[in-house]
Design brief:
Strands 7-8-6-5-4-3-2-1-9 form a nine-stranded mixed beta sheet, sandwiched between helices. It has nine helices and nine strands. Helix 1 packs across helix 3 and helix 6 packs across helix 8.
Length: 209
């Protein structure tokens, strides 16, 4: 999705940046993990296929993707994005009958960053962004039944379990953003700063085309 191609969202633990070709090799490395393939219901791709996927995610109007970085490491300017990557967060706007519904996915790929609040902050930041910039008023998360940590996290973020698919062994959780939930979400993310990616990181301020 091109709307966020120059957007950086900087929080306390995590910084969200657009998914560019520079991130692909690290992402590809992550997705060789059988555990991550299982948790994300993904098939392993070749590196070239991963580059094609990155281009489609950038250009498609129904997907919004950010790479999750470690704010402390990244803001120190000591390392490039690829050395600070911990995961990704996605919004899929695939319901043609309801453009206000977004399916959210979070992956903390680096095991040492799990259980430390990185996934929670990244999810809240993406939900706030989707609500404010994409007109999302309903969020769904589809999670494998074995992924108890992720199910528990979404329930803490006020999601309710609405369906179980025993064939795919998948749980669907949902949050309808009422006025009260909107206020809560904005309060949870009022520390987040929005910045320009081109000015912060890319050489000569050039965006990918």
């Amino acid at each position: 999705m091109k709307i966020n191609q120059n957007t950086v969202l900087q929080g306390k633990r995590v910084t969200l940046v657009p998914y560019t070709s520079a991130h692909v090799p690290r992402y590809h490395e992550w997705m060789q993990s059988e555990e991550l393939q299982r948790l994300t219901a993904s098939e392993p791709l070749s590196l070239e296929q991963e580059y094609e996927m990155q281009r489609s995610w950038r250009d498609d109007t129904d997907k919004c993707t950010f790479i999750v970085l470690d704010t402390e490491r990244w803001s120190g300017q000591a390392c490039g994005d690829e050395d600070c990557m911990v995961g990704d967060v996605n919004l899929f706007l695939t319901d043609t009958e309801d453009p206000t519904l977004g399916e959210i996915e979070i992956m903390i790929a680096e095991p040492s960053y799990r259980g430390r609040g990185f996934g929670k902050e990244a999810t809240l930041m993406m939900m706030s962004y989707g609500m404010r910039n994409l007109g999302i008023t309903k969020f769904e998360a589809k999670i494998g039944q074995e992924n108890e940590a992720s199910i528990c996290m979404f329930k803490k973020l006020h999601f309710k379990e609405v369906a179980v698919n025993s064939v795919f062994q998948e749980v669907t959780l949902r949050l309808d953003v009422s006025d009260q939930e909107r206020r809560w979400l904005l309060e949870q993310t009022n520390h987040v700063e929005e910045k320009s990616y081109a000015e912060l990181k890319l050489p000569a301020g050039v965006l990918e085309t």
